[in-house]
Structure formats: C-alpha cells, structure tokens
Amino acid sequence: MAKARALDKRRKSIKNIRKITRTMELVSTAQFRRAMERAIAAKSYTDRIVRLVADLARAGLNAEHPLLAPRESKKRAALLILTANRGLCGGYNSGVLRSGLARLEELRREYDEVELVVSGKRGVSFLKYRHYEIARSFTQFDDKPAYDEVVAIANEFLTRFRSGDLDRIDVAYSKFTSLSKQSPVAETLAPLTSMTTEIESQSAEASGEVEYEFLPSPQSILEEVVPSAFKVKFFKCFLDAAVSEQIARMMAMKAATDAADEMISTLTTTYNRARQSQITNEIIEVISGASALQ
Amino acid sequence: MKCVVVTPEKTVVDQDVRFVVAPLYDGEYGIDANHTPVVGRLGAGELRLTTLDGAIERWYVEGGFVETLDNTVTALTHFAIPVDALQLGKCRAELERALAMPAHSDELIAIKEEAVLVARAKVRVAEKQAKSK
What we know:
Oligomer: heterodimer
Order of helices and strands of chain A: HEHEHEHEEHEH
Shape of chain A: elongated
Number of domains of chain A: 2
Largest sheet of chain A: 5 strands, mixed
CATH class of the largest domain in chain A: Alpha Beta
Number of strands of chain A: 6
Strand content of chain B: over 45%
CATH topology of the largest domain in chain A: Pyruvate Kinase, Chain: A, domain 1
Strand order of the largest sheet of chain A: 3-2-1-4-5
Structural class of chain A: alpha/beta
Strand order of the largest sheet of chain B: 1-2-4-5-6
Largest interface: A-B, 33 and 30 residues
CATH superfamily of the largest domain in chain B: F0F1 ATP synthase delta/epsilon subunit, N-terminal
Helix content of chain B: 25-40%
Number of domains of chain B: 2
Number of helices of chain B: 2
Distance between the termini of chain B: 29 Å
Number of strands of chain B: 7
CATH class of the largest domain in chain B: Mainly Beta
Radius of gyration of chain B: 16 Å
Helix content of chain A: 55-70%
CATH superfamily of the largest domain in chain A: ATP synthase, F1 complex, gamma subunit
Shape of chain B: globular
Distance between the termini of chain A: 28 Å
C-alpha cells in the first residue's frame, strides 16, 4: 500500500500548487488588463506630442535645446533599472538585469562615475547580493505606476541633467511591442539625440498640411515640448515595464499550470496502476490462501 | 466646438463646449468656434470651459500645449485637476518651498524661477477659487 499512498500524496500537493499558479495567472491577467489600459491612455498623449514635434519640424525649426545636444563632458551618468517587486514571472527580471548590467559596463568604460538607480525589490536584492552600489531604489511601483510619482523622479533627473550634475541618463527596462513580444532593452533618455533625428527626418519630408500659428513662437514651443517628451518617455518606460511584467507572469503561470496538469494526469495513471496491481496482489494472496486450505 | 484635455494618465475632458479660455504662457487666450489653427504654449493657470448650457468649468493645468484644429481644442498638459481640488494651504507651502530653493548658478536660477512661477500661479488660482466661494 505504501507506494500508492505516496503517489496520492504527491498528486495532492501538485494539485495545491496548481491552484496557486492558476490563481496567480488569473490575477496577473486582470492586472495586465489594467496596465494595458493605462498604456493605451498614455499613448494618446505620446502620439499627440509626436505630431506636435512633426508640425514644429514642418514650420522649419532647427532643433536646438540643451536636452537634445550631445554632451562633451563625461563625468557622471545615471542608469535606472526597472525590475519587478515580485518573482515568479519567468525570465523577466533576469532579462532586464542582464541588459542593464551590460549597459552599466559600457557606461563605466565611458564615464568617470556611474550612478545606479533601481526600481523593484527583485533588482535591489540581486544587485546587493553582487555587491553593486545602489544610489537609490524604489519599490512603490507595481502594476499601475502613478504619473505623479514617476514624474517626481523624472523631474529630479531632469534638474540634475540641466544643472550639469549628470551627463547622461539611461534606462534599462522591458519594452512592450506586442502581446507576444516584449524585449529587455537599455535606452538613452538624455540627451535625447533620437529626437533630433526625428525632427530632421520630419522636416525633410515637409508636406503641405495645415499651417499652424505658433504662440508665442516655434522656438518657445520646442522649449516646452522637449522636457514634456522626456517626461512622457520616462513614464512610458514604467508603463511598458509594468505591462511586460504582467505578461511575463501570465505566461510563466500558464506554463506552470499546464505542467501541473500534465504531471497530475501521469501521476493519476501511475497511481491507478499501482493501486490495481496492489489489489491484484491481494486477491492472489486471498485465493492462494483459500486454495491452500482446501 | 469640441474640447479635449489629455494628460499622460488619461483623457480628463472630452465634451462639446461653447468657448475656451486657455492660460497661455504669457496671458490668457480665448478660443471661440471656427478659430484659426493655432499651437500655443500653456503656462500654469486656469483653463475655463463654457459648456453648452452656459456653465463654466474650471481646471487647473500646468504647462503643455493647446492646439486648435477643425473646431477641436486639444490641451496637452502633464497635470490637470478641477480647481475645487486645489488646497490653498498646500499651494502656499509649495510656493514657500520654491522660494527657498538654492540659486547659485544660471541653471539653478532658471529652475527656481520656473518653480516659483508655477507655485505662484497655483496660489493665484486657489485664492480666486477660495474668494468666489
């Protein structure tokens, strides 16, 4: 009887784990929906900002702004790594950390000092374990990062960048492209050199669309649009990270649930076989006992 | 005429209006129906919407842009709350904090000036709202 009972026990524990993974899958599905809605809401703002930049470019503006110009000095850079607060989300955290650390090495070669800022408990504990020095860490961002909180950080970075305390700001996070594709990336947010090329390519194809009147002037609008673009990009990193995390967790938990299902079914078969052979054995014993008495 | 106010978090206003007053960088700017296409830089201040039934809605917005095109006024701003939600005490404290910021280099002076400007606008709007009550 011992073997069948042990099998049954194992099957029960797997069933319990399956219950947990299944629940986590459902929870992360709900959180993913919420995170996704926010990402879509942010998109309408981002799209309009991009369109505005295009309109500015058509007005024949040359892009000059302290945030756009490449920096000569290479004293101090900051790297922000966005990880999750919790595990059980497959390769999400390790992927982001790997790309983050690769970027950190690059920055260290180029700049005198590199400041490491980390969001998420997972990243903090990983980096602490490896004896990296963390300048600041955040753990308050989960499935729905608040714009106020993110922008407070963005403003701080922006102020330090403008005052010359920082020469470069990079972010390592998981970029959300589609439901089936999220990839860990490291991007440079300041200086925003990518925007300069955007503006230039837009003005090159200047089409004859609506002619706007700019109040007070295109230059002044640019002054405002650049920090806005930086902040919204910064915010988008957090949103993307949140969405990707939930997707990663959803996938990981789905895989775990499926694996548990499979295990349960093979264990059930083995258990039934063991039970059956036990019963057969017992019957043989009874019959042979009875026939010995005859 | 339609008015849309968008922040990075959500669309806060999307409704038909009669008239819009936008707080531009250097003064208020009124937009009536059939206005010419304009892109304006918003400062911190009060955005007033006259709704179809003549009521006035007040929003406090902070920076961003206003754009009119095809009888649609779009305001892109990073921060928008109903004026009622502003707390005068908190706004005053913010102004004090801004005034206490260090200013010993050109960049820091610019940053401080901006913070003071925003905080002053906030206090002004909040005071106006407190008086009208």
